[in-house]
Specification:
- The chain is an alpha/beta fold.
- The chain contains 13 helices and eight strands.
- It has two domains: 161 residues, Rossmann fold, CATH 3.40.50; 123 residues, Orthogonal Bundle (N-(1-d-carboxylethyl)-l-norvaline Dehydrogenase, domain 2).
- Strands 3-2-1-4-5-6-7-8 form an eight-stranded mixed sheet, sandwiched between helices.
- Strand 7, helix 7 and strand 8 form a beta-alpha-beta unit.
- Pfam families: DUF2520, Rossmann-like.
- This is DUF2520 domain-containing protein.
- It comes from Dactylosporangium darangshiense.
Length: 295
């Protein structure tokens, strides 16, 4: 892809890092929007050559405009840019939202600009360390047919790999990533908290090898990697877990129940646990769920 003048609207964790990566690839980030003190500091560190401008002026200055804003803000931003006349024919306007596709960019197309949905399947800290993590990651891309080659080149400049996502599958694609990554972070934090409650002083040290092995095994083996009392149908152990959680951290009971039930469903469906052997376990889970609803 030829050198592009790029404008970043949203110097948050994602926008600033992607802008810095594009500069590494030979493009020029000429302007960015940075409102908060944190985003201004981030822009200063990662995009030192970019001018801090209002959104419409950033768009007007760029050949490629990257919209890196929260999902619920995106539609209003796009409409506002179109209304101000900041967009022009031939300009590329890409957003980084996983949940949205091209529909949210309809005003862009109406203005003659070229719409692109470009979502990095990665979690960001907004620091220089993120730049090295971009190599080889997937980007969920939705693009018009005539922009596919450009999208592939742009993702290549970012060090990534294109994963084409149909417009109607964007929400499902994003739900899968959020369920896997965001809920994993919540789950691990919960596990660390409960280990502290159990008297473990360094829960991260205890969990790191266990969770690392579990993740690696699951990515390779799928449901065959599931272990533990639910996979064995150990109803008595699960009942003890629920009693212990209820005594110390009752807020942890509902997510434990939901995940235990989903785990049971998967191991039964995979033939790992016979339905007849699962009944005592399922009874424990049903009783606990009924207790939760009645509380």
């Amino acid at each position: 892809m030829n050198r592009q003048n790029i404008g970043i609207i949203g110097a948050g964790r994602v926008g600033a890092v992607l802008g810095a990566a594009l500069e590494r690839a030979g493009h020029a980030v000429v302007a960015t929007v940075a409102v908060s003190a944190a985003s201004k500091s981030r822009a200063e560190r990662l995009l030192p050559g970019a001018r801090l401008l209002p959104a419409d002026e950033v768009a007007a200055a760029a050949d490629l405009v990257l919209l890196a804003v929260p999902d619920d803000v995106l539609a209003g931003l796009v409409a506002g840019l179109a209304d101000t006349g900041a967009l022009r024919p031939g300009q590329i306007v890409a957003h980084t939202s996983g949940a949205h596709g091209l529909a949210v960019l309809a005003p862009v197309a109406a203005a003659g600009a070229r719409p692109l949905a470009l979502h990095p399947a990665m979690t960001f800290t907004g620091t220089e360390a993120d730049l090295d993590r971009l190599a080889g990651i997937s980007f969920g891309v939705t693009a018009p047919d005539d922009l596919r080659a450009t999208a592939e080149t742009l993702v290549g400049d970012l060090g990534g790999v294109v994963e084409w996502i149909a417009e109607e599958r964007r929400a499902l694609y994003h739900a899968a990533l959020a369920h896997g990554a965001n809920h994993l972070a919540t789950l691990v934090s919960e596990a660390m908290d409960r280990l502290r409650d159990a008297g473990v002083h360094e829960p991260e040290r205890v969990l790191a090898p266990l969770l690392g092995a579990a993740l690696d095994n699951t990515l390779r083996l799928g449901d065959a990697a599931i272990t533990g009392p639910v996979s064995r149908g150990d109803a008595g152990t699960v009942a003890k877990h629920l009693q212990a959680l209820d005594a110390v951290a009752p807020g942890s009971v509902p997510p434990y129940l939901a995940l235990a039930r989903r785990t049971a469903d998967r191991v039964i469906a995979a033939g790992r646990l016979r339905p007849i052997d699962a009944e005592p376990l399922l009874d424990v889970l049903r009783d606990a769920q009924a207790k939760e609803r009645a509380a």
